[in-house]
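Methods, example record. To illustrate the input and output format used throughout this study, we show the complete record for oxoglutarate dehydrogenase (succinyl-transferring). The sequence lines were provided to the predictor; the line carrying structure tokens was produced by it.
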Amino acid sequence: MQDGVMREWLETSHLAGGNVAYIEQMFEAYLDDPTAVSDEWRKVFDALPSDGKATDTKMSDVREQFREAAKNKLKQSGGGSSVSDQKQVKVLQLINAYRFRGHQHANLDPLGLWKQDTVPDLSLDFHELSKDDLDREFNVGSLAVGSETMKLKDIHNVLENIYCGSIGAEYMHIVSTEEKRWIQQRLEGNLGKAKFDKEQQKKILRELISADGLEKYLGSKFPGAKRFSLEGGDSLVPLLKALISRSGEQGAKEVVIGMAHRGRLNVLVNVLGKKPQDLFDEFAGKHGESKGSGDVKYHMGFSSDFATPGGDVHLALAFNPSHLEIVNPVVVGSVRARMDRLGDKVGEKVLPITIHGDSAIAGQGVVQETFNMSQTRAYQVGGSVRIVVNNQVGFTTSKREDARSTQYCTDIAKMVQAPIFHVNADDPEAVVFVTQLALDYRNTFKRDVVIDLVCYRRHGHNEADEPSATQPLMYAKVKKHPVARELYAERLNESGAVSEDDAKQWVQDYRDALDKGEVVVEEHRPMRAHSVDWSPYVGNDWDVEYDYKVSAKKLKELAEKISQYPEEHKLNSRVAKVYQERQKMAKGDKALDWGFAESLAYATLVDKDVHIRLTGQDSGRGTFFHRHAVLHNQEDGSTYMPLNHIREGQGQIEIYDSVLSEAAVMAFEYGYATAEPKSLIMWEAQFGDFANGAQVVIDQFLSSGEQKWGRLCGLTLLLPHGYEGQGPEHSSARLERFLQLSADHNWSVCVPTTPAQVFHMIRRQQLRPVRRPLIVMTPKSLLRHPLAISEMDELENTGFQNAIGEIDSLDPKKVKRVVLCSGKVYYDLLKERRDREQDDVAIIRIEQLYPFPAEEVADIMQDYQHVKDFVWCQEEPQNQGAWYSSQHNFWAAIPSGAQLTYRGRDASAAPAVGYLSEHNKQQQKLVDEALTIK
Ligand code: AMP
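The corresponding predicted structure is encoded as:
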């Protein structure tokens, strides 16, 4: 095996005599953590075969070989195992202990209230080192402090400074040796501190003055008004400015920020450059001309540009509802859209910054979902910088006893091995230092990183609140605690960097600037013409014209292309069969099924250079085996997408099977779609009812984002829906909820029933210059239903039909009842009526339930003005489906004097029954009742 390595080690070991115990311990230390030993030793150990590597050599054999080699060396030199060598190992272990657990002794809490457990590993005794050793010189191993040997007392001192000062670095949970070494070198090489020159120090002080100054100003001008003050976490302002500035220096063009309400107004004014006067006007209750319903000021987003040494960076603060943490995946989705637009595959040009609260980051599940997404193909953005404004209390809930079960609020970040830098917010230089470190880590390794800004909250949850009622001890401390700018000004005064008078003058200068009401951020730049133009979509309603036609020639050409794949790409036999059928459909030998018509819609769009993104839990194949847009080679597992092989330079379609989440992934796609109007963005649920895992996204963003914030979003939700006896959880996409949320033309809700309709619906969503969500109840059994087929010519010249009249050639005069319905039940009704050879009931399909197609339905109704008996038939229980939410539209559509009655399942708490036999009975009954005229 590694004779060469072993020999080299024996010849070059710095230890006199070679010490078996030393080597063994060194090796054990290496096994615990490869960064514990010096780089030379690591190289020796790395070269050994290990259990983890593909080798036959067992670790026990490797140990044995070391033992033998060391014994031989011992014999040759006639030496013995020296005490000093044993101590040397202990020193290395001490160093390692600081790296692992130093953060537990760090000085993180500005209020000094944290009860920190004593960590025995950080004492000399624990490592069998004593006072007598303090003046002895030891090798420092991999400690990156610039000298190879140091006295123990100096080693101990630097370890205390690096690991137990204002920064608590948690990074030893990272598996990658390279990343750990990188962090060590940055932390240890700087002795845990950055050196800032006077100019930089002045800048930091002025930023603290601005953070504090704004709150004081608002507090005095608008006493008692809620502003969710930043006070206590003032260093967030220098932190963010340093982060943005450095990211621009390192090549970022855009930064997207997500944050909850705490400190948001401060960030808006002091970082993003919102005009203070605009904020004051909002406090005074004024608001500009806006068509929508608006939102409170601490939820509003903002866009601006920010000058950095690398050029101007565009800043976008995401609009944010009160639901904590849900904005994070929205931000990441927005970042991915911007990356795609800039052709950035790795995350060099756009930086996501998410700002969390300490209780929320530990408490909200969407945080875990977002971490889990961070390195996956569909969602990666090259890492997010996550900042926790850790004010140690959640509204009135105390942190350790009630708010969480972990030591730190940030422990969730360890699931992706993100490094976590806890930092005392009252040490602004340490804050800026870790900010630089965190950003550099993110940019080097393209992974998430966390800054835990440990601070406090000067007031209650809001300014009208009384915090002492629930946190008496904490607030007794807070009341006496000086603000960060005072502490820092004092420090700079002592070091001679800034005089007391200057600091006072700057406080006054800032107040004067606020009085003027103009922008107070030096780096602020007016937003340059933005790369995305939303104007073609603004102000359009559903009736806007668009070109929906496709020529027969183009359809045939595309149909042929998307039903081909390379011969050597071996398909599973069932998939091959699907493609054989598609080839027949392309030739016109077979009617189109759902999967093919849907794929053809995508083909026509990518052929027009449209970029499409479709994600969902099984979207490549389709949960119900219908799509097969991604073909898996059975021999080597490789994939092939016919839709991406239409022509050179076509628009790309991306289809990803998503992580098993609803909330974060839907929020991500919302973020993507609100940042990119030109792409077609679709999210598909495995089963429609699973979308309720993302109810917050539906309620807070999709249904009302335009109304509240004026932000358009063309996201499409594909939600499988239909009563096929699969039980309460796989039948309903909860249509009623979407209909209940429908108002102000906020979105469209469709229930297409034919392949041609799904073709036109998808194309309409993209080609019509409207960017509002599309909610689709997609079918399951209809995917293969013999009646749910379309001919190629149905794709050519018609657009989407919002309502479809009777298709059989009934004589309208004979019609005594008209049944209105949507979705799959139509085919049950049609089949039954045909079986009965009944000609007195007409069936009308409402394919778009919202906005209700009153005109189209009125046209269809022309034939039935004599009819008095109208029925709404649905599969869903009476309290669900469209009956309660859309009934007013049905009433308005029928002739005056006619009656409208309900045929469907009885009201039910569960969406569907669990027993197939019961389901069949119910289904038969509702169809029968809809058709039988008594
Ligand atoms: P952002 O890049 O998000 O900062 O957006 C820049 C500008 O584009 C905004 O100030 C808006 O004028 C416009 N804009 C961005 N997103 C949307 C959207 N979803 N709907 C309408 N306008 C938008």
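Annotations derived from this record:
The domain at 552-795 is CATH 3.40.50.12470 (Rossmann fold).
The pocket of adenosine monophosphate is lined by residues 303, 316, 530, 534, 674, 711-713 (CB under 6 Å).
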